Amino acid sequence: QFNFVESGGGLVQPGGSLRLSCTASEFSLGDWPIGWFRQAPGKEHEGVACIASSDGKTYYTDSVRGRFTISRDNSKNTVYLQMDTVTAEDTAVYYCAAPPFGCSSFATDMSDSWGQGTQVTVST
């Protein structure tokens, strides 16, 4: 089982920006496709973005495409989620995980194990 550590969440105003970080201590994130997921109150987990391990190809759910950017820095063993132009609908707990069947199906086939996540609250 992979143990991910998410950080960088907080309170941000609508239209603002935030950068989330995902790290791990027991394995190299660069060897795996890594996704960002979120769970809003009363809702199921939702796939937000994913970055492939082989070619760095990125995938986004429609609601964040053009506003969020996923990237990785293998030298720091970290995957980032840059969140720009946030809205109240982005309020959720954000998690990172390795999608079991890769990025092509990250939005439908998710991990069944989640870390503690990091809370993002968009509000005035």
Summed up, what is this model?
With about 120 residues, the protein is an all-beta fold. About 0% of the residues lie in helices and about 40% in strands. The protein has no helices and ten strands.
Describe it for me?
With 124 residues, the chain is mainly β. 0% of the residues lie in helices and 41% in strands. The strands form 2 sheets. The chain has a 6-stranded mixed beta sheet, with no helix packed on it. Strands 1-3-8-7 form a 4-stranded antiparallel beta sheet, with no helix packed on it. The mean pLDDT is 95.
What's the helical proportion of residues? under 10%
What structural class do helix, strand and pairing data support? mainly beta
Instruction: Report the end-to-end length measured between terminal Cα atoms.
Output: 38 Å
Work out the strand percent. Answer: 35-45%
Major sheet summary line: 6 strands, mixed
Count the helices. How many?
0
Oligomer: single chain
| Radius of gyration computed on alpha carbons | 13 Å
Principal-axes geometry comes out as globular
Provide mean pLDDT, rounded. Answer: 95
Instruction: Find the count of extended strands (DSSP E, 2+ residues).
Output: 10
Catalogue the unreliable spans.
none
Strand order of the largest sheet: 2-10-9-4-5-6
> H/E order of the elements?
EEEEEEEEEE
